[in-house]
């Protein structure tokens, strides 16, 4: 049992398929879901919660030694982060983490855990870390859905690039691959549409449902799965709240959110439009669906007649003459579904692009940023019916398997041969021929698909017949005898039969020009942006600027000619290029059973995964091979410090000298590089750590001696100076005494005269007032600040760490003696920012809340908290930045939490994962939910230091003074001068209060009245149908004898 529970399978002596399966099964039964194969992590999905990811566990996996802790996903994140910083002997370079496995093996959860731990490792006390963490739940809602294999299956692939400057994250970028748009209009039995539709319908309020034009889930044809159980609806409601908060955290504007939800509602309404024949050649919308046509037109912001025309006919221009071709029933339904798919696909692309813009690194152009990439891509799929999407998904998994084989087997064994290392070759399942079957030109599956897609009259049967004729002799292709257009590909993970129906249409993915023109002219700005954008060669959504719209038709046509398959192949090529240029880390996810049940192992399913993943061969090569192979120059450059020789030549002899000083064994030397086992890096890193610690001790003692020497020299100088000053004082005293004696002797020798009366003094007159008399007074000495007690120690959550509490630039009075020009201007700019943009959000019922203290210093806030109970708090305006600070009285001291303003106007406490619309909302939320990481609750608001003159009196006075007050005190630029309308809004906010402001500024859909009328018509139709059904039942019962 002890052998089977070993953490590293590469350390096992006897290993075959049976012992490998038994080892993983035994570990799984003991809840050890992670296992190492050398430097590769194997993860088995437990399908249940395990206490492996708490904060205490995460702290252990920070700068840890691999052998000191059990295998964990956090260890992979820590190794990638330390390698990116160059702390593990490889030098600072880009890293990538490749997560692979079947659908349902736990790849998405592993991605979230990796992101969370990397953000913990690079904690820089800013809101950016939380923004990056909120990207995953947002993309999951719009890109994941329930399938028969997985309740949270990724229906797209993503590559997350985290950008770092030294140890701090500076930005992120998301690359998305092949969203399964067909799921919007069709789902197989047991599957669902994308999560966002169910979240939205369950979590949205009844008032917002009326605003967007939404009904219950069961009313929509595009939504499979019904209303769900009560427990599921509660989960959807919670998820919807999380999605809305994620959009607020990342930085989406309120108008953008409303437009997006309205368009999603329009997609659902569009799916309920049904057609019926008419007396003319054109189809018409059924009477029962007239309301849905009006609703979708209002939700899309277009005219009802134009939307109907784009559904039932196609307009073309021949020799300057417009020709209208009416659709049949199937063509009209295809046009309807095509609109739904393209609109949803472009919304998803816009979300990804918006995230990339908001999370782009804010650094200079020339700054070199390092990168950690995390690949979370759709797993290998083999359903009962496999379509075009499964073909692309499985191609992506073939590429990942080839990357794994190339890095682990091909490249490594090739170097053994070139360097003359004695090695017994390990055979593995090479999937390069399968990739050639898909990607070779001009005869490959995708090349033939593009060729057939170029012919308008070609059919799916023609495409499959061409495949059968070209690949009938290939060992990786099998001809299926069926009346349906099907074919079989022998993948690395097994045989998959594909149904060719719809391949050509999905590969073309054409959008009729009338539909594009219709949405470009929509009154909903978001739809106009979606359809004026272009799609790059890799399928990336690219919004266009206004000045480029004149050439939009040409660009649209040029991008339309490129097929979906061509874009996907190009995006995979770009992805592989990024991964080959980085240092990879592998996580192989395993699914223990297909029923998604905890504590159950299906040996057949697990064995199939172990075989096609090549884990047995991987164990052999990690056990006998050399995974780290640095060149002589790289090794000597990195480890020459072990010899304490600064001018060591970077050659083979130096490397041998370094290795002789260490206790490493089992390494080998080639002709141009060294070959090490996977554990050698950690041992060398420990040697460097010992030197680092020794260097710190040397530096500490040297600095101590140096400072002591300087101190003694300075002390001697001060003593000598004091001695000189004392001697000079004694000399001056003697001189004065001698002079006084001489004066007395001189007076005694003078003759005595009668005293002469002095003239009478005049009555003193009052002195005239001088405006500068104050400035002639000698300057008062600067008061010495009192020492800070431990009660008010600074923490990582404190703001203004470098600002002294008693600095005169932060005192509330605006006196000339207390503030200088620069700080005065900054202070006035902060107050102006508050009165122009913030006052109406803080005011409640016409007054500032008692917890708001305006512009007070950190020291003043701490003084107010001195005798207050635990849980007391106040919020003050920042002095040197546009933001706020929450001061909280904890058990032992005061804490200061920074409150940052998002680009969309939301408020976020740094380190928290929730955004708030206003400061009162923030306070209300944290009275019931603790502030991380100490989980402190806001209980008692701290009152003002003087009720007659509160701390915020200055802000209220300035807000009431209006624009002219600023003209007298600080002359603002034209761009920053508030308008009269703005001041009127501010005055109204002060008078009417916070609630009135929220109501008046609520964002509504553009055609809200049209949507309301359409929904009333739909509801009336439902009511009429119910009444008719009830009437017919009643009539039937009365006719019975």
TrEMBL record:
User: Bias regions of kind Basic and acidic residues — which residues?
Assistant: 738-750
Gene Ontology molecular function, alphabetical: actin binding; ATP binding; microfilament motor activity; protein serine/threonine kinase activity
**Keyword list, A-Z:** Actin-binding, ATP-binding, Cell projection, Cytoplasm, Cytoskeleton, Motor protein, Myosin, Nucleotide-binding, Repeat, SH2 domain
Q: Where is this region: Actin-binding?
A: 572-594
- Which PROSITE patterns does the record match to this protein? IQ (PS50096), MYOSIN_MOTOR (PS51456), SH2 (PS50001)
Where the record annotates domain SH2, the positions are: 851-942
> Which residues make up the binding site for ATP?
101-108
Stretch list, region Disordered: 738-814
- Where is the protein localized? Cell projection; Cytoplasm, Cytoskeleton
Belongs to which family?
Belongs to the TRAFAC class myosin-kinesin ATPase superfamily. Myosin family.
Q: What is this protein called?
A: Myosin-IIIb-like
Source organism per entry reads Paramormyrops kingsleyae
């Amino acid at each position: 049992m002890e052998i089977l529970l070993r953490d590293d399978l590469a350390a096992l002596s006897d290993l075959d398929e049976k012992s490998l399966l038994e080892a993983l099964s035994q570990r799984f039964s003991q809840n050890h879901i992670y296992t190492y194969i050398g430097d590769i992590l194997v993860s088995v999905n437990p399908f249940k919660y395990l206490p492996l990811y708490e904060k205490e566990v995460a702290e252990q996996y920070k700068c840890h030694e691999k052998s000191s802790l059990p295998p964990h996903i956090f260890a992979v994140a820590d190794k990638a982060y330390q390698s990116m910083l160059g702390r593990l002997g490889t030098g600072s370079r880009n890293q990538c983490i490749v997560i692979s496995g079947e659908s349902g093996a736990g790849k998405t959860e592993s991605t979230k855990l990796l992101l969370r731990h990397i953000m913990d490792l690079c904690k820089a006390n800013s809101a950016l870390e939380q923004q990056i963490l909120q990207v995953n739940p947002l993309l999951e809602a719009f890109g994941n859905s329930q399938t028969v294999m997985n309740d949270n299956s990724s229906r797209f692939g993503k590559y997350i690039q985290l950008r770092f400057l030294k140890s701090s994250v500076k930005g992120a970028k998301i690359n998305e691959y092949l969203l399964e748009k067909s799921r919007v209009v069709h789902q197989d039995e047991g599957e669902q549409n994308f999560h966002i539709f169910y979240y939205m319908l369950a979590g949205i309020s009844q008032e917002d449902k009326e605003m967007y034009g939404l009904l219950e889930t069961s009313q929509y044809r595009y939504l499979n799965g019904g209303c769900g159980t009560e427990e599921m609806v509660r989960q959807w409601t919670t998820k919807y709240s999380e999605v809305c908060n994620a959009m607020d955290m990342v930085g989406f504007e309120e108008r953008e959110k409303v437009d997006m939800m309205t368009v999603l509602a329009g997609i659902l309404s569009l799916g309920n439009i049904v057609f019926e024949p008419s007396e003319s050649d054109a189809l018409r919308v059924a009477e029962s669906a007239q309301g849905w046509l009006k609703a979708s037109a209002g939700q899309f912001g277009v005219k009802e007649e134009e939307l109907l025309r784009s559904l039932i006919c196609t307009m073309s221009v021949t020799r300057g003459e417009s020709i209208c071709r009416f659709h049949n029933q199937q063509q009209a339904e295809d046009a309807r579904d095509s609109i739904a798919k393209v609109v949803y696909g472009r919304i998803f692309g816009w979300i990804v692009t918006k995230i990339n813009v908001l999370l782009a690194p804010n650094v200079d152009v020339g700054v070199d940023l390092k990168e950690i990439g995390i690949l979370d891509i759709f797993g290998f799929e083999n359903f009962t019916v496999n379509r075009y999407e499964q073909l692309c998904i499985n191609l992506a998994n073939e590429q990942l398997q080839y990357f794994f084989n190339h890095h682990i087997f091909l490249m490594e064994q090739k170097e053994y041969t070139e360097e003359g290392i004695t090695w017994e070759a390990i055979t593995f399942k090479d999937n390069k021929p399968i990739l050639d079957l898909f990607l070779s030109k001009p005869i490959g599956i995708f090349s033939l698909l593009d060729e057939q897609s170029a012919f308008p009259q070609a059919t799916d049967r023609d495409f499959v017949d061409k495949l059968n004729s070209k690949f009938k002799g290939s060992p990786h292709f099998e001809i299926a005898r069926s009346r349906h257009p099907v074919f079989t590909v022998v993948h690395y993970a097994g045989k998959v039969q594909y149904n060719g129906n719809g391949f050509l249409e999905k590969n073309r993915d054409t959008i009729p020009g009338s539909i594009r023109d219709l949405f470009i002219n929509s009154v909903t700005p978001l739809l106009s942006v979606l359809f004026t954008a272009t799609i790059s060669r890799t399928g990336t959504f690219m919004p266009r600027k206004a000045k480029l719209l004149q050439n939009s038709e040409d660009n649209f046509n040029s991008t339309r000619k490129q097929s979906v398959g061509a874009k996907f192949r190009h995006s995979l090529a770009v992805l592989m290029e990024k991964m080959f240029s980085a240092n990879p880390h592998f996580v192989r996810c395993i699914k223990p059973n297909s029923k998604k049940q905890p504590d159950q192992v299906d040996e057949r399913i697990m064995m199939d995964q172990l075989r096609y993943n090549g884990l047995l061969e991987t164990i052999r090569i990690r056990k006998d091979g050399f995974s780290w192979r640095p060149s002589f120059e790289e090794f000597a450059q990195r480890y020459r410090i072990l010899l304490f020789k600064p001018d060591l030549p970077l050659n083979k002899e130096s490397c041998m000298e370094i290795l002789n000083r260490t206790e490493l064994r089992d390494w080998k030397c080639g002709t141009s590089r060294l070959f090490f086992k996977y554990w050698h890096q950690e041992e060398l890193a420990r040697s460097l750590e010992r030197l680092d610690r020794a260097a710190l001790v040397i530096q500490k003692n040297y600095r101590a001696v140096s400072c002591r020497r300087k101190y003694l020299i300075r002390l001697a100088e001060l003593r000598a100076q004091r001695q000189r000053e004392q001697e000079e004082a004694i000399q001056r005293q003697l001189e004065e005494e001698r002079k006084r004696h001489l004066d007395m002797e001189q007076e005694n020798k003078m003759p005595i005269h009668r005293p002469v009366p002095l003239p009478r003094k005049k009555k003193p007159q009052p002195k005239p007032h001088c405006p500068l008399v104050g400035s002639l007074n000698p300057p008062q000495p600067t008061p010495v600040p009192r020492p800070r007690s431990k009660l008010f120690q600074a923490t990582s959550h404190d703001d203004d760490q470098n600002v002294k509490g008693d600095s005169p630039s932060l005192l509330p009075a605006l006196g000339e003696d207390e503030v200088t020009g620069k700080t005065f201007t900054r202070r006035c700019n902060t107050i102006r920012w508050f009165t122009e943009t913030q006052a109406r959000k803080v005011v409640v019922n016409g007054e500032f809340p008692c917890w708001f203290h305006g512009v007070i210093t950190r020291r003043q806030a701490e003084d107010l908290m001195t005798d207050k109970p635990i849980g007391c708090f106040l919020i003050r305006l920042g002095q040197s930045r546009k933001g706020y600070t929450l001061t909280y009285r904890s058990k032992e001291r005061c804490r200061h939490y920074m409150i940052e303003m998002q680009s969309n106007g939301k408020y976020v406490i740094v380190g928290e994962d929730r955004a708030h619309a206003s400061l009162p909302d923030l306070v209300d939320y944290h009275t019931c939910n603790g502030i991380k990481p100490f989980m402190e609750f806001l209980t008692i608001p701290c009152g003002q230091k003087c009720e007659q003159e509160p701390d915020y009196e200055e802000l209220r006075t300035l807000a009431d003074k209006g624009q002219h007050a600023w003209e007298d005190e600080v002359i603002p630029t034209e761009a920053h001068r508030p308008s009269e309308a703005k001041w009127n809004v501010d005055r109204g906010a002060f008078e009417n209060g916070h609630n009135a402001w929220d109501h008046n500024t609520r964002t509504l859909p553009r055609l809200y009245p049209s949507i309301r009328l359409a929904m009333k018509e739909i509801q009336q139709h439902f009511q009429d149908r119910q009444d008719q059904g009830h009437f017919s039942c009643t009539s039937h019962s009365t006719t019975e004898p």
